[in-house]
Design a protein that fits this description.
Elements lengths: L5 E5 L10 H4 L6 E2 L2 E2 H10 L5 E6 L5 H5 L4 H9 L3 H8 L6 E6 L6 H6 L2 H4 L4 E4 L3 E4 L4 H11 L4 E7 L9 E5 L7 E9 L10 E9 L3 H7 L10 H8 L5 E5 L3 E4 L3 H14 L4 H10 L1
Parallel strand pairs: 1-4, 1-6, 4-5, 8-12
Antiparallel strand pairs: 2-3, 6-11, 7-13, 8-11, 9-10, 10-12
Helix pairs in contact: 4-5, 9-10, 11-12
Bound molecules: uridine 5'-triphosphate (UTP).
């Protein structure tokens, strides 16, 4: 079985839910305390054994790749000023992994963005991450998916969260092959926005997907789906025709930081646990 050492993170979307700020700053670079959203994702991947990280960027959004590149002048400045903690906070960024960027010239969908990474990924399984999805937990979410992949002969794994039954019509919902009550189960389908009555489970796909390289053939074959975009969900349905696939419910909390309220919740959750700032933030929350 091939080891999972590669991840693809699309960051080429327009971020319309986060306007106006996303007009000036990529939403993946918005801070949660003092680190951008994308750094939480990269740290989770590195803690999960990922060594190569491929960002899918738009033509004018290379700042996500640049954030992970060495800044010689800033390092010299901080050293000269004796700001060693600040130096340490930026020094490791570039050597956490090997970083690459591929371009998506037009935002034609999440699946289309993943397809742009085909040549750089090569013939190996890889993890796809939503560029604005933090999964906040003690165990890195990507590592959980890798473990399910390894236990099941190298099958693809979709990360899921359980959502309230009356909200299933907003998500891509997985259909269990047999029983879907455990945290990990084999699936037979993924259904985009099913009606509340017809939904096969309350497990919504989101955040992380571990896929075999055959996903690229599916992505290249399928027609545009919802919103006229090439959707990863449609490619997964296609792949399910020929390969087994599993769903795994994260042990951490999923936070869609492309959504304003969820982003603020992430700041509060990380803020109150912060080793230096936590006590003051907690006090403020109680007094506000
Ligand atoms: P989202 O659907 O959250 O991003 O996609 P979006 O389209 O930018 O957001 P809204 O809905 O307009 O606010 C999840 C991730 O996929 C990337 C986004 O940048 C985000 O990190 N993405 C999405 C692409 O790279 N290309 C696309 O065509 C679409």
């Amino acid at each position: 079985m091939l080891r999972v050492e590669t991840a693809v993170i699309p960051v080429a979307g327009l971020g319309t839910r986060f306007l106006p700020v996303s007009k000036g700053v990529a939403k993946e670079l918005l801070p949660v305390i003092d680190k951008p959203v994308i750094q939480y994702i990269v740290e989770e991947l590195v803690a999960s054994g990922i060594r190569r990280i491929i960002f899918v960027v738009s033509d004018n959004k290379r700042e996500v790749l640049e954030y992970f590149q060495k800044d010689e002048a800033l390092e010299v400045y901080l050293t000269a000023k004796g700001k060693m903690n600040e130096l340490a906070s930026i020094q490791h960024l570039h050597d956490m992994a090997e970083f690459f960027a591929v371009e998506q010239h037009q935002p034609l969908g999440f699946g289309h963005a993943v397809l742009q990474a085909r040549d750089v990924v090569g013939n190996t399984p890889f993890i796809v991450c939503g560029g604005d999805d933090i999964i906040d937990g003690d165990v890195p979410a990507a590592r959980e998916l890798v473990e399910v992949y390894e236990r099941n002969g190298g099958a693809s794994v979709i990360g899921v969260v359980r959502v309230p039954a009356h909200t299933v019509n907003r998500y891509g919902i997985v259909a269990p092959l047999h029983d879907g009550s455990d945290r990990t189960f084999q699936i037979k389908d993924v259904i985009e926005k099913p009606s509340v009555e017809s939904a096969p489970s309350n497990c919504a796909a989101g955040g992380r997907w571990l896929v075999t390289p055959e996903i690229f053939e599916s992505l290249a074959r399928i027609e545009p789906g919802a919103g006229g975009e090439i959707q990863l969900t449609d490619a997964l349905k296609d792949l399910l025709q020929t390969q087994p696939m599993y769903a795994h419910q994260y042990s951490g909390v999923y936070r869609d930081c492309g959504n304003k309220v969820e982003y603020i919740k992430a700041i509060i959750a990380f803020g109150r646990r912060h080793p230096v700032l936590g006590a003051e933030i907690e006090q403020f929350i109680h007094s506000a």
